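How a chain folds remains the central question behind the approach discussed here. In the encoding step, the backbone of a single protein was reduced to a row of integers, each denoting a local shape. We regard such an encoding as a compact summary of how the chain folds. The sequence in question and its structure tokens are set out directly beneath this paragraph:

___
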Amino acid sequence: MWTGQEPSWDSPFNRGSHCAKGASVRELVHSDRRLKYPMKLVNGQWERTSWEDAINGIGDKLLEIREKSGPESTYWMGSAKFSNEGTYLFRKLAALWGTNNQDHQARICHSTTVAGVANTWGYGAMTNSYNDIRNSKTMLVLGGNPAEAHPVAMQHLLEGKELNNANFIVMDPRFTRTAAHATEYVRFRSGTDIALIWGMLWHIFENGWEDKEFIAQRVYGMDEVRKEVAKYTPDEVERITGVPGEQLKRVAETFATQKPSTIIWCMGQTHHTVGTANTRASCILCLATGNIGKPGTGANIFRGHDNVQGATDIGLDVVTLPFYYGLTEGAWKHWARVWEIPYDDLVGQFSSKELMETPGIPLTRWFDSVSLPAEDVAQPDVMRSMFVQGHASNSITRIPESLKGLAGLELLVVADPHPTTWASLAVQAGRKDNTYLLPVCTQFETSGSRVASNRALQWGEQIVPPSFEQKDDYQVLYLLSKKLGLAEWMFKHIAVEGDRPVPEDILREMNRGSWSTGYCGQSPERLKAHMRNQHKFDLVTLRAPKDDPEVGGDYYGLPWPCWGKPEVRHPGTANLYSTGLHVMDGGSPFRARFGVERNGETLLAEGSYTEGSELTDGYPEFTMAVLQKLGWDRDLTPEEMSVIEEIGADMGDIGKVSWSTDLSGGIQRVVLSHGCHPYGNGKARALAWNLPDPVPVHREPIYTPRVDLVAKYPTYPDAKQFRLPNIGFSVQKAAVDKEIAKTFPIILTTGRLVEYEGGGEETRSNRWLAELQQDMFVEINPGDAAERGISDGGWVWVNGAENDVKAKVKALVTERVGKGVAFMPFHFGGWFRGEDMRANYPEGTDPYVLGESANSITTYGYDPVTGMQEPKVTLCQIAAV
């Protein structure tokens, strides 16, 4: 029994502080609204069942569907609430089942960050840390509201402002709680981030405020950016964004000249059809001003779940295997070697080798993969079944389409501490059977590691044992894989105690395969030592004293990349791309992942290298061929050479064995000993030739109020992406032709509340939090409210631009939103079109607070690079009830 809790006073991240959710987390475990037993629909009614019957029923149906429609006809929807070890098992199970149709919350969170940032400088993650923001002289928040969404992290921004006298600039369509702390607030039209950033760069280039030396040494393609930015004059930017030129010039000068400067974002930038381009533009702003690779600089990207970074890294993603290896034949062969499974046997699990190497369907489109005609779905059959473990349904846009998808599935399984809105929607969609709810533990009833936004790992021990018949994620995946005949492969190198795989063993297997990202040095033993010694790490640098016997010289949590085997004792990397440090002190250049030259121009750094490097210029990523050329192969041990030779024989050329495929760790160890970086020393890319827009350009949202701008700034052309048609261009054209903006003139944007999280089912089932925010609402400007006869606190209908949908919510009349703009939080569910759906939940499991979901109103729109949805900008109409 959890009788009480205290803050973690020694944590260098939290410093003993809690947000409302953290302070009330005991109720998450002991809430009487939790799912206590396995349940299933029988004739449309929820009935209790046993674990044995549930697993047998689920497994038999999955195998039946697989036999009939192939492995790709099952969707595996995972979770950012998994531990790293749970994530890894889920991804491994999907791989062994034979599909890339597996995904998690990062798709609707920071998938566009990962794509945009990784395609700019190598890795798609926060470059510095919350703590390092204390070193900044200028903090620019564009697309985030940390006071509400990351209140504990907000302390570091406020410390920077108060103690460092830092500029605090907030750019947001709403005057948020974060904006209330700003030294300068910039209101702009939602969906115009690129024009806004290019407007800043126009002033920076015009006045010579860019960092010319940094660009010359470490950036490729900035001249192409200059050409594009020249089009975004102050007048044009004001026409697009609504921001006056003089204000934008002031912001640009501050960011470029009062350094170090950092840019901070969350989902305000990512939730767009141009989300990948948005995050690229932010990175380019850092590159142009030299604000990367130093304390107080960088792209500080705030993640929204406690392990969304880890779940992304470990490959719960339709485009990659664990640790960003991709889906190429070489990537699959690497993991076949780690798992010690014959590669040909893995190929045999898929319908074809082509599909094995093809990205799957993003969770944003799962319902389209059920409902679209079979000829529009580029796999052997449409989706027939779905296994959901720890993901909300109401956090995905276009809920009316979800109802169609749910009606079409032959099997639905939801494994979660709560039944979630999946249970309610399943009944609403008319499902009668083949629908299961499995009661899963919270993170406090199991153990494992998780990754913070700054790439640092933390180990969590079990606090209390599970209650009733709840099982943890490891047990669920073990029982299911056993039923599906995959357990022998799954747990070949992982001990299982009873029906529970040992998480420490899972992490060790991850360490053996994760060379590409530097998850190889964070053993369970090192992580547990960090948790025992939290008090020894510096508040700002996050580093422990070098003379400490257990954690000497380490950065807290060993933020990846943490190179080499654990015995190499790499300290982790606190700030990415910092050439002012030795590699064994966490120094790193930009990753040389894009080749060595393009069109006769070098892609390797020029005259820039990390402290103490024996190579004093740019160099490619390390392979055995490069080691042999340098004569460093002589430093490998016989044991390391034996492993490399075996892999080389499999590849047909020992020279191709690289820093990321050498399972011995020898290549990384040797490279580090010469002061160099395993992934090379390249230039960041301002020009990303492989993306739809190599240099970002402004594109109007699908549903835009500015139809006058669509001809000049249209959305992306229609195309087939992720096995499905993306018809955003056609939808935008139809909206313009039908004059949708006249019927639905208000811009609708969505976001978070401090009391709730994600889809909100857990937090709305927490009586202490539910008391704080009892009604779903829409923020509306006083002018818009007056024109419509709407009173503060009164009931209104919010009418969406698609599917003839409407939502009944309370009105919050406020000047937080500008004229013609409305805001809705996305944490609510359990109502639909004004009707209370509480009766659809299993008895006693309905959350205390229900409400309309904002995503019943949101509309079509998908980023072509990632499949990200567009809930940050659409159109609506609001009327009093």
Q: What stands out?
A: The chain has a mean pLDDT of 98.
